[in-house]
Protein backbone atom coordinates (compact mmCIF):
# COMPACT_ATOMS: atom_id res chain seq x y z
CA UNK A 1 0.00 0.00 0.00
CA UNK A 2 1.30 3.44 -0.95
CA UNK A 3 2.28 6.00 1.66
CA UNK A 4 -0.35 8.70 2.27
CA UNK A 5 0.98 12.01 0.99
CA UNK A 6 0.26 15.55 2.10
CA UNK A 7 0.04 17.38 -1.21
CA UNK A 8 0.03 21.09 -1.86
CA UNK A 9 0.22 23.43 -4.81
CA UNK A 10 4.01 23.48 -4.59
CA UNK A 11 4.24 19.70 -4.56
CA UNK A 12 1.84 19.19 -7.45
CA UNK A 13 3.64 21.73 -9.59
CA UNK A 14 6.97 20.13 -8.69
CA UNK A 15 5.60 16.76 -9.85
CA UNK A 16 4.45 18.31 -13.12
CA UNK A 17 7.82 19.97 -13.65
CA UNK A 18 9.89 16.90 -12.85
CA UNK A 19 8.83 13.63 -11.26
CA UNK A 20 12.34 12.81 -10.16
CA UNK A 21 12.60 16.15 -8.36
CA UNK A 22 9.34 15.38 -6.55
CA UNK A 23 10.68 12.01 -5.49
CA UNK A 24 14.06 13.32 -4.38
CA UNK A 25 12.67 16.26 -2.56
CA UNK A 26 9.51 15.04 -0.91
CA UNK A 27 9.89 11.28 -0.65
CA UNK A 28 13.62 10.83 -0.23
CA UNK A 29 14.20 14.19 1.46
CA UNK A 30 17.41 14.72 -0.49
CA UNK A 31 19.40 17.71 0.77
CA UNK A 32 18.43 21.03 -0.77
CA UNK A 33 20.69 24.08 -0.49
CA UNK A 34 19.57 26.07 2.52
CA UNK A 35 19.76 29.64 1.33
CA UNK A 36 20.93 30.03 -2.24
CA UNK A 37 18.80 33.09 -2.95
CA UNK A 38 20.51 36.23 -4.19
CA UNK A 39 20.47 38.98 -1.54
CA UNK A 40 17.96 41.04 -3.50
CA UNK A 41 15.49 38.13 -3.60
CA UNK A 42 15.96 37.36 0.07
CA UNK A 43 15.13 40.98 0.81
CA UNK A 44 12.08 40.83 -1.41
CA UNK A 45 10.86 37.65 0.24
CA UNK A 46 11.28 39.17 3.67
CA UNK A 47 9.29 42.22 2.65
CA UNK A 48 6.54 40.09 1.17
CA UNK A 49 6.27 38.13 4.38
CA UNK A 50 6.18 41.31 6.46
CA UNK A 51 3.41 42.70 4.31
CA UNK A 52 1.34 39.52 4.61
CA UNK A 53 1.77 39.60 8.39
CA UNK A 54 0.54 43.20 8.52
CA UNK A 55 -2.54 42.35 6.46
CA UNK A 56 -3.19 39.32 8.64
CA UNK A 57 -2.98 41.44 11.79
CA UNK A 58 -5.37 43.95 10.25
CA UNK A 59 -7.97 41.26 9.58
CA UNK A 60 -7.50 39.90 13.08
CA UNK A 61 -8.69 43.31 14.28
CA UNK A 62 -5.33 44.71 15.38
CA UNK A 63 -4.48 48.33 14.67
CA UNK A 64 -1.56 48.96 12.37
CA UNK A 65 0.47 52.10 12.98
CA UNK A 66 2.33 52.90 9.75
CA UNK A 67 4.99 54.82 11.68
CA UNK A 68 6.02 51.58 13.38
CA UNK A 69 6.80 49.88 10.06
CA UNK A 70 10.53 50.44 9.73
CA UNK A 71 10.97 49.28 6.13
CA UNK A 72 10.00 52.11 3.79
CA UNK A 73 8.89 49.79 1.00
CA UNK A 74 6.69 47.73 3.28
CA UNK A 75 5.29 50.90 4.82
CA UNK A 76 4.42 52.15 1.34
CA UNK A 77 2.75 48.84 0.50
CA UNK A 78 0.74 48.99 3.69
CA UNK A 79 -0.42 52.56 3.00
CA UNK A 80 -1.42 51.53 -0.52
CA UNK A 81 -3.37 48.60 0.87
CA UNK A 82 -5.07 50.74 3.52
CA UNK A 83 -6.07 53.27 0.84
CA UNK A 84 -7.45 50.47 -1.30
CA UNK A 85 -9.60 49.21 1.56
CA UNK A 86 -10.95 52.64 2.42
CA UNK A 87 -11.58 53.69 -1.20
CA UNK A 88 -13.32 50.61 -2.51
CA UNK A 89 -15.97 51.92 -4.88
CA UNK A 90 -19.58 51.10 -4.25
CA UNK A 91 -20.42 47.61 -5.43
CA UNK A 92 -16.87 46.35 -5.04
CA UNK A 93 -16.86 46.20 -1.28
CA UNK A 94 -15.62 43.08 0.35
CA UNK A 95 -18.55 40.84 1.18
CA UNK A 96 -20.08 40.85 4.64
CA UNK A 97 -19.16 37.71 6.46
CA UNK A 98 -16.74 35.97 8.75
CA UNK A 99 -13.15 36.94 7.97
CA UNK A 100 -10.64 34.11 8.30
CA UNK A 101 -7.08 35.33 7.64
CA UNK A 102 -4.33 32.80 6.91
CA UNK A 103 -6.75 29.90 7.04
CA UNK A 104 -5.45 26.44 6.26
CA UNK A 105 -7.66 23.81 4.69
CA UNK A 106 -6.85 20.13 4.24
CA UNK A 107 -9.11 17.84 2.24
CA UNK A 108 -8.88 14.17 1.21
CA UNK A 109 -8.13 13.19 -2.36
CA UNK A 110 -7.79 9.54 -3.45
CA UNK A 111 -6.47 8.44 -0.06
CA UNK A 112 -4.06 11.39 0.16
CA UNK A 113 -4.47 14.90 1.53
CA UNK A 114 -4.54 18.20 -0.28
CA UNK A 115 -3.42 21.16 1.77
CA UNK A 116 -3.65 24.91 1.16
CA UNK A 117 -3.32 28.14 3.08
CA UNK A 118 -5.38 31.16 2.09
CA UNK A 119 -4.36 34.77 2.72
CA UNK A 120 -7.95 35.62 3.58
CA UNK A 121 -11.22 33.76 3.30
CA UNK A 122 -14.56 35.44 3.87
CA UNK A 123 -17.50 33.12 4.36
CA UNK A 124 -21.11 34.02 4.87
CA UNK A 125 -24.58 33.72 3.48
CA UNK A 126 -26.23 35.65 0.70
CA UNK A 127 -29.81 35.16 -0.44
CA UNK A 128 -30.01 32.05 1.71
CA UNK A 129 -26.94 30.46 0.12
CA UNK A 130 -23.49 30.08 1.65
CA UNK A 131 -20.65 31.78 -0.16
CA UNK A 132 -16.86 31.70 0.14
CA UNK A 133 -14.65 34.47 -1.22
CA UNK A 134 -10.88 34.10 -1.18
CA UNK A 135 -8.46 37.01 -1.26
CA UNK A 136 -4.83 36.79 -2.21
CA UNK A 137 -2.42 39.69 -1.69
CA UNK A 138 0.54 39.94 -3.98
CA UNK A 139 3.63 42.10 -4.02
CA UNK A 140 5.06 40.78 -7.28
CA UNK A 141 4.36 41.75 -10.84
CA UNK A 142 0.68 41.56 -11.83
CA UNK A 143 -0.55 38.70 -13.97
CA UNK A 144 -3.41 39.04 -16.40
CA UNK A 145 -6.74 37.41 -15.66
CA UNK A 146 -6.34 34.64 -18.21
CA UNK A 147 -3.01 33.60 -16.69
CA UNK A 148 -4.52 33.71 -13.21
CA UNK A 149 -7.43 31.49 -14.26
CA UNK A 150 -5.01 28.80 -15.38
CA UNK A 151 -2.66 29.21 -12.43
CA UNK A 152 -2.52 26.21 -10.13
CA UNK A 153 -3.17 28.39 -7.13
CA UNK A 154 -6.51 29.49 -8.57
CA UNK A 155 -7.44 26.00 -9.70
CA UNK A 156 -6.48 24.24 -6.49
CA UNK A 157 -7.88 26.73 -4.05
CA UNK A 158 -11.25 26.98 -5.79
CA UNK A 159 -11.45 23.20 -6.10
CA UNK A 160 -10.50 22.67 -2.47
CA UNK A 161 -13.26 24.98 -1.31
CA UNK A 162 -15.80 23.29 -3.60
CA UNK A 163 -14.82 19.87 -2.25
CA UNK A 164 -14.20 20.68 1.41
CA UNK A 165 -15.36 24.21 2.16
CA UNK A 166 -18.70 22.99 3.46
CA UNK A 167 -16.97 21.92 6.66
CA UNK A 168 -16.47 25.57 7.56
CA UNK A 169 -20.21 25.92 8.17
CA UNK A 170 -20.96 22.73 10.04
CA UNK A 171 -24.13 20.67 9.94
CA UNK A 172 -27.49 21.75 8.60
CA UNK A 173 -26.26 24.35 6.12
CA UNK A 174 -27.24 24.53 2.47
CA UNK A 175 -24.44 23.10 0.32
CA UNK A 176 -21.67 25.43 -0.80
CA UNK A 177 -21.94 25.42 -4.57
CA UNK A 178 -19.03 26.21 -6.91
CA UNK A 179 -21.05 29.16 -8.24
CA UNK A 180 -20.81 30.73 -4.77
CA UNK A 181 -17.02 30.49 -4.64
CA UNK A 182 -14.63 33.13 -5.97
CA UNK A 183 -11.10 34.42 -5.57
CA UNK A 184 -9.77 37.97 -5.81
CA UNK A 185 -6.13 38.72 -6.53
CA UNK A 186 -4.90 42.11 -5.37
CA UNK A 187 -1.50 43.43 -6.41
CA UNK A 188 0.22 46.17 -4.50
CA UNK A 189 1.68 47.32 -7.82
CA UNK A 190 -1.78 47.63 -9.41
CA UNK A 191 -4.01 48.38 -6.43
CA UNK A 192 -6.96 49.69 -8.41
CA UNK A 193 -7.18 46.64 -10.64
CA UNK A 194 -7.96 43.58 -8.55
CA UNK A 195 -8.92 40.47 -10.51
CA UNK A 196 -11.90 38.46 -9.31
CA UNK A 197 -12.45 34.99 -10.73
CA UNK A 198 -15.68 33.14 -10.13
CA UNK A 199 -15.98 29.38 -10.07
CA UNK A 200 -18.77 27.22 -11.48
CA UNK A 201 -19.92 23.59 -11.55
CA UNK A 202 -18.74 22.78 -15.08
CA UNK A 203 -15.29 24.19 -14.43
CA UNK A 204 -15.10 22.36 -11.11
CA UNK A 205 -15.93 18.98 -12.64
CA UNK A 206 -13.20 19.36 -15.23
CA UNK A 207 -10.73 20.92 -12.80
CA UNK A 208 -11.22 18.32 -10.08
CA UNK A 209 -10.92 15.50 -12.59
CA UNK A 210 -7.56 16.89 -13.74
CA UNK A 211 -6.32 17.28 -10.17
CA UNK A 212 -7.36 13.70 -9.39
CA UNK A 213 -5.61 12.52 -12.54
CA UNK A 214 -2.34 14.10 -11.37
CA UNK A 215 -2.70 12.45 -7.95
CA UNK A 216 -3.37 9.15 -9.76
CA UNK A 217 -0.12 9.61 -11.69
CA UNK A 218 1.73 10.19 -8.42
CA UNK A 219 0.21 6.96 -7.09
CA UNK A 220 1.30 5.08 -10.20
CA UNK A 221 4.83 6.29 -9.65
CA UNK A 222 4.67 5.27 -5.99
CA UNK A 223 3.55 1.81 -7.01
CA UNK A 224 6.16 1.49 -9.76
CA UNK A 225 8.96 2.34 -7.31
CA UNK A 226 12.55 2.79 -8.49
CA UNK A 227 13.87 6.11 -9.70
CA UNK A 228 11.10 8.28 -11.05
CA UNK A 229 11.54 9.69 -14.60
CA UNK A 230 13.77 12.68 -15.16
CA UNK A 231 12.17 15.63 -16.89
CA UNK A 232 12.79 16.05 -20.59
CA UNK A 233 12.67 19.80 -20.11
CA UNK A 234 16.34 20.57 -19.57
CA UNK A 235 15.48 24.14 -18.63
CA UNK A 236 14.12 22.74 -15.35
CA UNK A 237 17.52 21.24 -14.60
CA UNK A 238 19.21 24.60 -14.97
CA UNK A 239 17.58 25.81 -11.77
CA UNK A 240 17.57 22.52 -9.92
CA UNK A 241 19.71 21.57 -6.95
CA UNK A 242 19.77 17.92 -7.95
CA UNK A 243 21.78 18.18 -11.17
CA UNK A 244 24.61 16.10 -9.78
CA UNK A 245 22.23 13.40 -8.55
CA UNK A 246 20.73 13.14 -12.02
CA UNK A 247 23.88 13.52 -14.09
CA UNK A 248 22.47 16.69 -15.56
CA UNK A 249 25.36 19.02 -14.67
CA UNK A 250 25.68 19.93 -18.32
CA UNK A 251 22.41 21.83 -17.99
CA UNK A 252 24.45 24.59 -16.34
CA UNK A 253 23.24 27.59 -14.41
CA UNK A 254 20.35 29.74 -15.64
CA UNK A 255 21.08 32.77 -17.78
CA UNK A 256 20.86 35.95 -15.76
CA UNK A 257 17.79 37.08 -17.63
CA UNK A 258 16.20 33.66 -17.81
CA UNK A 259 12.49 33.98 -17.27
CA UNK A 260 11.31 30.98 -19.20
CA UNK A 261 12.03 28.56 -16.39
CA UNK A 262 10.24 28.17 -13.12
CA UNK A 263 12.49 28.23 -10.10
CA UNK A 264 12.21 25.25 -7.77
CA UNK A 265 11.56 27.25 -4.68
CA UNK A 266 10.72 25.97 -1.21
CA UNK A 267 7.30 24.43 -0.83
CA UNK A 268 5.78 27.45 0.74
CA UNK A 269 2.25 28.59 0.11
CA UNK A 270 3.30 32.23 0.16
CA UNK A 271 2.35 33.28 -3.32
CA UNK A 272 4.92 35.95 -3.76
CA UNK A 273 7.58 33.30 -3.70
CA UNK A 274 6.14 32.20 -7.02
CA UNK A 275 6.33 35.67 -8.49
CA UNK A 276 10.11 35.67 -8.28
CA UNK A 277 11.98 35.14 -11.53
CA UNK A 278 14.28 32.19 -11.95
CA UNK A 279 16.49 31.66 -8.95
CA UNK A 280 19.82 29.95 -9.49
CA UNK A 281 20.37 27.11 -7.08
CA UNK A 282 23.68 25.44 -6.51
CA UNK A 283 23.93 21.75 -7.32
CA UNK A 284 23.90 19.53 -4.24
CA UNK A 285 26.77 17.12 -3.83
CA UNK A 286 25.83 13.48 -4.26
S1 LIG B 1 18.22 17.89 -12.27
FE1 LIG B 1 16.59 17.88 -13.82
S2 LIG B 1 15.94 15.73 -13.94
FE2 LIG B 1 17.08 15.95 -12.03
S3 LIG B 1 15.55 16.38 -10.47
FE3 LIG B 1 16.30 18.33 -11.22
S4 LIG B 1 14.88 18.93 -12.83
FE4 LIG B 1 14.61 16.74 -12.48
Task: Write a structural description.
By secondary structure, this protein is α/β, with parallel strands linked by helices. The protein has helices spanning 9-17, 19-27, 39-59, 72-86, 145-150, 152-164, 201-224, 234-238, 243-246; strands at 6-7, 98-109, 112-126, 129-138, 181-187, 190-198. A hairpin with a 2-residue loop joins β5 and β6. It is globular and about 55 Å long. Bound molecules: iron/sulfur cluster. The site of iron/sulfur cluster (SF4) has 13 residues, from α2, α8 and α9.
Uncertain segments are: 255-286
**What's the total number of strands?**
6
Largest sheet: 6 strands, mixed
The rounded distance between the terminal residues' Cα atoms is: 29 Å
> Strand pairing plus helix content: what structural class?
alpha/beta
Ligand catalogue: iron/sulfur cluster
- Number of distinct helices: 9
> How do the helices and strands follow one another from N- to C-terminus?
EHHHHEEEHHEEHHH
Fraction of residues in H or I helices: 25-40%
User: Which percent band covers the strand fraction?
Assistant: 15-25%
Name the shape in a single word.
Answer: globular
Mean pLDDT: 85
Based on CA atoms alone, the radius of gyration comes out at: 20 Å
